[in-house]
Design goal:
Layout: H1 4-7, E1 10-14, H2 19-35, E2 40-46, H3 51-57, E3 61-65, H4 76-99, E4 103-106, H5 112-121, E5 126-130, H6 137-142, E6 148-151, E7 166-168, H7 176-179, H8 182-188, E8 197-201, H9 208-221, E9 228-232, H10 238-247, E10 252-254, E11 260-262, E12 267-270, H11 276-282, E13 285-288, H12 292-301, E14 304-307, H13 317-327, E15 331-333, H14 341-353, H15 355-368, H16 373-385
Parallel strand pairs: 1-2, 1-4, 2-3, 4-5, 5-6, 6-7, 8-9, 8-13, 9-12, 13-14, 14-15
Antiparallel strand pairs: 10-11, 11-12
Helix pairs in contact: 2-16, 4-5, 8-11, 9-14, 12-15
């Protein structure tokens, strides 16, 4: 028999269509479900995008609406997009009326706009979560009607219509990020946990400029500081990265598991890191982009970083994220336009040469970490439900 308390809870979530919006929503939903095992949870997303794959795999009910993101310039497609937005709003109203949520939770992106607006129009309490330093256009608009805005950065509050309704929660991360241990994690990559480990990656698709600069910097770094190196190239960039490594004088071969390993055993080049929690658990320094989830996971583990913000994202949010980390002493920033092998190599060499500086950056990163962010956001949701 369902408990009366649990049966009354109905949570509607929307966010997307990128992983940066979807993964936090899934983490929030799991936290809510841990508190109310019999709660009804429904995700709403677009017909295209990652949500249709990620959300059902996470075990949650998923419905779609007609919606797409607006271009940053006026064109004929702008009118078609506006038409889809209107259609999405009416579909969202129908979903909200049928589902009757206790609270609607939006994690940003164009999908959450019509869903959260429909909820607000129908008198449903709305809680939104913002991952980046500068809130996206959807969340800036929705902050006018939200009961609570959960933010990941203190600086975000100044961009909101009602900053007094904001709560600093941090960005929800996967629980397995915190459970991985250094010794076992290093061993899973065939590395020595007693030696420094530098991890480089460019997101799930990889980043060619990061790959190129890192690989060309490796010959000057390999054998120094007793360091070990991991590079995730992106699946479609693996072969060219291995060819570039050979061209750069790195003697490496591809093992039976499809991973490139140097003859010295100190360099690993992989198409994709499926066990990222383990990679972060054993990393002393990360070279990566500055997406919100990446930074939240780095901070939760206390990993120092050299950040190369992606230059082609709306509102230049990655650079603003990166600068916020840099200002707190947790990272150093190299702009994509300035990323050269010599520049990156000097930065890595400098940090590995000064363990006290690296340790200070690690502490600063950990001070920013909020492993309990999902619980903090869930607190806001539960409070709104009352």
């Amino acid at each position: 028999m369902k408990s009366e308390k649990s049966a009354q809870k109905r949570f509607l979530l929307a966010g997307g269509g990128t992983g940066g919006h979807i993964y936090p929503a899934i983490s929030i939903a799991r936290e809510l479900l841990s508190r109310y095992p019999d709660a009804n949870i429904l995700f709403v997303g677009g017909k295209r995008g990652l949500a249709g794959d990620l959300v059902p795999k996470a075990g949650f009910e998923f419905q779609t609406i007609t919606v797409s993101g607006f271009e940053r310039r006026l064109s004929l497609d702008t009118f078609a997009t506006a038409g889809r937005a209107v259609a999405g709003l009416f579909q969202s109203i129908a979903i909200v009326r049928k589902f009757r949520p206790s609270v609607a939770v939006g994690t940003g992106g164009y999908v959450s706009g019509p869903v959260m607006l429909a909820a607000a129009m129908l008198g449903v309490p709305v809680v939104i979560h913002e991952q980046n330093v500068v809130p996206g256009a959807t969340n800036r608009l929705l902050s006018r009607w939200a009961k609570t805005v959960a933010v990941s950065w203190e600086e975000s509050k100044q961009y909101l219509a009602r900053p007094e309704r904001s709560v600093l929660t941090g960005n929800p991360i996967r629980p397995e990020i915190m459970s991985a241990q250094r010794e076992e994690s290093a061993a899973s990559f065939g590395l020595d946990p007693r030696r420094p480990i530098v991890l480089a990656f460019g997101g799930s698709q990889g980043a060619r400029r990061v790959n190129t600069a890192f690989i060309r910097a490796l010959p000057s770094l390999s054998g120094k500081h007793d360091a070990q190196f991991i590079l995730a190239t992106g699946s479609d960039k693996f072969e060219e990265s291995m060819a570039l490594a050979a061209e750069s004088g790195i003697r490496a071969s591809i093992s039976s598991d499809g991973i490139g390993r140097s003859d010295r055993g100190d360099i690993i080049i992989m198409p994709y890191i499926y066990n990222m929690p383990q990679a972060l658990a054993c990393a002393d320094l990360a070279i990566c982009r500055a997406g919100a989830i990446t930074l939240a996971e780095l901070a939760a583990r206390g990993v120092a970083a050299v950040l190369v913000p992606h230059p082609h994202v709306p509102d230049n949010v990655q650079e603003k994220n990166a600068r916020a980390m840099e200002a707190r002493g947790a990272a150093r920033v190299i702009l994509d336009s300035e990323l050269e092998p010599e520049v990156l190599g000097r930065e890595i060499d400098s940090l590995l040469s000064s363990r006290p500086v690296l340790a200070s950056m690690s502490r600063a990163s950990r001070n920013l970490g909020r492993p309990d962010a999902a619980a903090r956001v869930a607190d806001c949701v539960v409070k709104a439900a009352r």
